[in-house]
Design brief:
Layout lengths: L2 H16 L3 H6 L3 E6 L2 E7 L6 E7 L9 E5 L37 H4 L20 H13 L4
Length: 150
């Protein structure tokens, strides 16, 4: 994908998140730390534990590729090691075979679509749908976060 096209698509989605959808984001408790191509950093608060967790989305080559996802400590900005990731519903319990890092096993997330057990569930079949836009993907990540232990 042409990097300028990818950046323009991301810019439209980021603008929607910070402008038209800002009330939606605020109502869902999304704290937008950064939304500058190709990165989006959000902080979410777990409804049960009240723990704040940072979510780093890497939208490089959006939307030819789905975003990659990592978690970070909002206080330090450091990537969260596996033992500090919320548990329950995130992955198969093992690091991603290609990256060696923890991952979220969820359609719309790059690590899901590149995992050997999901290669038949190609991103190409989902991309471009409104239901797999930036806001939808973030909302699905939040829903999965809320069912973890925080």
């Amino acid at each position: 994908m042409d990097p300028q096209v990818s950046e323009a698509k991301f810019a439209r989605a980021a603008k929607a998140l910070t402008d038209e959808a800002s009330a939606f984001a605020a109502a869902h408790g999304w704290e937008v730390v950064e939304a500058r191509y190709p990165h989006m950093h959000l902080v979410l608060t777990h409804p049960g534990s009240r723990r704040r967790v940072g979510f780093h989305f890497d939208f490089t080559a959006w939307d030819a590729l789905p975003p990659s996802l990592g978690l970070f400590d909002p206080a330090t900005g450091a990537a969260l090691p596996w033992e500090r990731w919320p548990q329950g519903g995130w992955s198969a319990g093992n690091p991603h075979p290609s990256t060696g890092r923890p991952f979220l096993c969820l359609p719309g997330i790059r690590e899901y679509h590149t995992h050997p057990s999901h290669l038949n569930d190609a991103w190409e079949g989902l991309r471009g749908r409104d239901s797999y836009g930036v806001l939808y993907i973030v909302q699905r990540v939040q829903q999965r976060f809320e069912v973890t232990n925080g």
